[in-house]
Amino acid sequence: SDLDKALGRISGGLYIITATKDSVSSAMLASWVSQASFEPPGFTIAVAKDRAIESLMQVGDSFVLNVLEEGKYQPLMKHFLKRFKPGADRFAGINTQTANNGSPILTDALAYLECTVQSYLPAGDRLLIYAVVEQGEVSEKNGITAIQHRKSGSHY
Length: 156
Prior knowledge:
With 156 residues, this protein is mainly β. It is 10% helix and 44% strand. It is built from 2 helices and 11 strands; from the N terminus they run αββββββαβββββ. The strands form 3 sheets. A 7-stranded antiparallel sheet has the order 3-2-6-9-10-5-4, covered by helices on one side. It is globular and about 45 Å long. The protein starts with a helix and ends in an 8-residue tail after the last strand.
């Protein structure tokens, strides 16, 4: 429909959220991310209610938002879009380092932000998570964020 086509024109960057809690680590591709505050620096993420990573992103939990780079994001995106068997290492074959908050940083990402979940709000079929940024770094100073362009706002 025209409405679906119009919604599909809302662009979003491409990111990989990584989180570790206790001995469990997970990751997901995200495109519904938006800066939400300057002070403290914060942003929102829309996460599907049935995603496994949701259990690692409760109020007070920490995670890393890895920003994917235009022209270089395909290998990371393909890897994290794959279905993994329960208990499989989602980071096998991916270059990582550990953030101060314990979550994986993807070393091939354009930038990363270490974050803490402050609140969340049910929003349709998603949870809208608000997180504050504790620290971050850009790895490629001249790189730009990869952007997702969709044809329809009703599905991926």
